[in-house]
Amino acid sequence: MKYIIVLGDGMSGWKIPQLGNKTCLEAASSPFLDKLAPLSETGLCKTVPNGLKPGSDVANMAVLGFDPNKYYTGRSPLEAVAMGIKLKDDDVTLRCNLVTLSDNEPYEEKVMIDYAAGDIPTDEACELIDSIKQFIENQNFKLYKGTSYRHCIVAAGGVTGHEFTPPHDITDKVIKEYLPKGANAAVYREFMQKSSNLLQNHPINIKRVKEGKKPANGVWIWGEGTKPALENFEKLHALKGGVITAVDLVKGLGLLAGLQILENPRFTANYKTDFKLKTQTALNALLGGLDFIYIHVDAPDECAHHGDFANKIYSIEQIDKMVGEITETLKNAGENFAVLVCPDHPTPCALKTHVSEPVPYLLYSDKRSIDGTALRYTECEAAKSGIVIENGHTLINRLLNIK
């Protein structure tokens, strides 16, 4: 028996007037998911526990079957694990984004233009990070290079309890009231301001502006956390599993759970990712011996953060094709399987950030016959079943208990 989770990050959302008052799921052409919907269990699932913020870290942890109330210690330590950083028990990690800020105002009056600095390529990003290490690194703080706009700070013997705001929550807003607050806030603010002053005139950013690209003219610190620990997935479920993702936090979750990470440079976190290669990689793994695969597709979320509903719809349509090819190939190979399709959280294009509302899920197995209530895979259709799973980390049990 093969078990598949196809996670469309931020795939659900709110109705959009420009789409005839439809959500992106409703507006998308999704023939494969719509074919499965009447034969599947559908419903809503609360992936973000009360009291926790609706981040992809919390929500993906829940969908993988780990209770965030028990295991969650912050976002950045998951990314640090994925980056290969060896953490001590008293280390505090922080996410460090390269961002695009408006360029004419005094620092605190600048506006957050783009939390991802135009998806800056890794080689350019790493050169920029090297240029600003001088402003933060000492015996207590170390800055680590990551990929694209995502980087990491480790504070040795650090303290937590700061007030940070994710940069994707403040697009088009003045940064002043969202700057770090707490014990080390002065250190972090000084680093952010000095970095902005240097990056503004860095040759890479001058070149990017001339080319019509967004400059990485600032950094943003957020997502603090401490060393996490998850139980081993294979020991818990007696299944050999793998993860396909282009996002470090999901990679970190997989590594902590002992899952195999299936990587490729053509896997990206935006709608230009190689959907077909992700699909083929999943099939090769499943037909090559793995029992479980977690396919994380970040594209819908990235598009929604930019308010780009057209490419969010495109991404959903590519996910639909992924589900179609995976299910048909496994059927033709004579493999029994069950597949769970869901977002981690909704990301409404109007808000350009996450919300904590329950997400629609679809659970199909070729081994059972269901007279489902859903005519399509959409938010409204999933709600018709009346099923609402309050503890998101239990959703995986409905998948793995299908025999």
Describe this structure in words.
Helices cover 33% and strands 18% of the residues. The chain has 403 residues and is α/β, with parallel strands linked by helices. The chain folds into two domains: 2-71 and 230-400, 3-Layer(aba) Sandwich (Alkaline Phosphatase, subunit A); 92-226, no CATH class. The strands form two sheets. The chain has an eight-stranded mixed β-sheet, sandwiched between helices. Strands 3, 4, 5, 6 and 7 form a five-stranded antiparallel β-sheet that branches. It starts with a strand and ends with a helix.
Give the tags.
403 residues; alpha/beta; Alkaline Phosphatase, subunit A; 2 domains; eight-stranded mixed beta sheet; five-stranded antiparallel beta sheet; 15 helices; globular
List the helices and strands and how they pair.
Blueprint: E1 2-8, H1 24-27, H2 31-36, E2 41-45, H3 56-63, H4 68-71, H5 76-82, E3 92-101, E4 112-114, H6 122-132, E5 141-147, E6 150-155, H7 185-199, H8 203-210, E7 218-226, H9 233-237, E8 241-244, H10 248-256, E9 260-261, H11 275-287, E10 292-297, H12 299-305, H13 309-332, E11 337-342, E12 359-365, H14 379-383, E13 388-389, H15 395-400
Parallel strand pairs: 1-10, 1-11, 2-13, 8-9, 8-10
Antiparallel strand pairs: 2-12, 3-4, 3-6, 3-7, 5-6, 11-12
Helix pairs in contact: 5-10, 11-13, 12-13
